[in-house]
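Fold Annotation — chain and its backbone
Encoding — discrete vocabulary of local shapes
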Amino acid sequence: MSKDSKSLDPLFSNIQKRRTELQITQEAFGDMIGKSQSDVSKIETHGKNLSPADYRNIARALDVDFNFLFSTDDNPTYSRKDLQDIYDYIALTSNNISMIKDLQINISNKVEQVSRGMYYINSLFPNKKSDDMQ
């Protein structure tokens, strides 16, 4: 096996692993990417050269990010669904942070209004303490 072929090992195993996770047969997968079952078998066993369009079609058919095809245990990547879930979580968290900041500002404004109101009441009744007014 050549050095170039060895560097593509994750690609071939990731294609097969993801295809089997999705419970797609080689024949059905071939139909999805415009290849025969024999071609899929060759792809998964390192015997088929792929074009850039093939890589794109494979990633789409497997519903993964292009980088997933080349990921290893030492260098994992995420499926589109995983990335979307992460994005949604970050967006939700960002929205929550924004809402919390808005609440802090509103509370601060209300505290300031109450303080001004207490100052005004104290100015109307200079001899009374605010605790006596309850």
User: Anything to note?
Assistant: The two ends are 89 Å apart (CA to CA).
